[in-house]
Write a structure and sequence with these properties.
The chain is an alpha+beta fold and 160 residues long. The chain has helices at residues 6-9, 30-49, 133-159, and strands at residues 11-16, 52-63, 72-82, 86-96, 103-116.
């Protein structure tokens, strides 16, 4: 199995916020952004593993800046970390005002996906080789999140 670099599977998508995406305050619904994040992350996961990939969890999602009707939304998804059958995908959402050029990071999210074979069972996925300083930082941070998530799940199961 060939190892891959984050750039091999990274995805960038763009959307424009239309009135049907927004609430009565003129800002986009969080659920719409979550849907766009899920789609971008799934594309990156499938590109990395070369199989169907399904989301099993969202580790965190942080909404930082509101996105308004008419704003352009740029989603960048990248594989941060790979286990045996699962991978963490990071998604950064940036809003851009096409008139003023003003932009800012609106939302960030970390999702876990599992690659599935034709039998719909988890499959081994390619290793990840981070190359740049930023990719290595994201990899190390993802390792910490994965370890914390496993510890939390173990603690929760012990208490139930």
């Amino acid at each position: 199995m060939i190892s891959k670099h984050p750039k091999d599977s990274s995805v960038e998508t763009r959307n424009i916020v239309m009135p049907e995406h927004a609430n009565h305050y003129g800002t986009v619904f969080g659920g719409v952004i979550m849907s766009w994040i899920d789609i971008a992350a799934a594309m990156a996961a499938e590109r990395h593993c070369g199989h169907e990939a399904v989301m099993v969890s969202i580790d965190t999602i942080s909404f930082r800046l509101p996105i308004n009707i008419g704003d352009h939304v740029v989603l960048k998804a990248s594989v941060n970390f790979v286990g045996t059958t699962s991978m963490e995908i990071g998604v950064q959402v940036t809003k851009e005002n096409p008139i003023t050029g003003e932009s800012g990071v609106s939302t960030t999210a970390y999702l876990t996906f599992v690659g599935l074979g034709k039998d719909k069972k988890p499959v081994k996925i390619p290793d990840l080789i981070p190359e740049t300083e930023d990719e290595r930082r994201r990899f190390k941070n993802a390792e910490i999140r994965v370890a914390a998530r496993k510890k939390l799940l173990k603690q929760i199961k012990l208490k139930s």
